[in-house]
Amino acid sequence: MIKVKSKKAFSMITAIFVIVIMAMVTSLVMNVTGKTVKATTMQYQKEQAQLLARSYTELAILYAIHKDRSSGCIETISDHFGATGNNGYNIKMNISYIGKNSNLTGCGTPIGTLNGNGGFYDTISMVIDTYITYKDFDDLTTDRNITFHRRTLQKL
């Protein structure tokens, strides 16, 4: 014959065991959810940096096309996108020019000169290095910056 007292003790041990199992499953789910949110945030920031790099590169090309090169050329562009402080994106572009020195009057020191007659040799091309720097949304306490770099060659 089974005693009633031992039945109650077995039920209590079973209930405690089920509660412990449910707590472990809940902590696992919360851990996976947190990692998924962080990965999604990082992916969003990287894609935003890529889109900003593309947009600002096109802006630099537009500025260079409409700039009067007899008074000098654009060599750097700096800007900030987004909220001020740690949540924004810092944009810095370095522009270098390739072509014959006679065509680059006022454009500073070109990164290369080409010799030849006609065609590509008489054109001016520009190399645009775009750097997008931002901080991780999830870790604003550190001073570590993430930098996205895009290099573009554009014929003027």
Specify the overall morphology.
rod-shaped
Please give the oligomerization state of what you see: single chain
**Treating each run of at least 4 consecutive H or I residues as one helix, how many helices?**
1
Percent in strands: 15-25%
**Biggest sheet statistics:** 4 strands, antiparallel
Give the % helix. Answer: 40-55%
* Contiguous runs where pLDDT drops below 50 for at least 5 residues: none
Mean pLDDT: 81
Radius of gyration: 30 Å
> Between the first and last Cα atoms, what is the distance in angstroms?
98 Å
Topology:
Elements: H1 4-66, E1 76-81, E2 89-98, E3 125-134, E4 146-155
Antiparallel strand pairs: 1-2, 2-3, 3-4
Descriptive key words:
156 residues; alpha+beta; four-stranded antiparallel sheet; 1 helix; 23% strand
Describe the 3D structure.
This protein is of the alpha+beta class. It has one domain. Helix content is 40%, strand content 23%. It contains one helix and four strands. The chain is rod-shaped, with a radius of gyration of 30 Å. It starts with a helix and ends with a strand. The mean pLDDT is 81.
Structure at a glance:
By secondary structure, this protein is an alpha+beta fold. The protein is built from 1 helix and 4 strands; from the N terminus they run H-E-E-E-E. It has one domain.
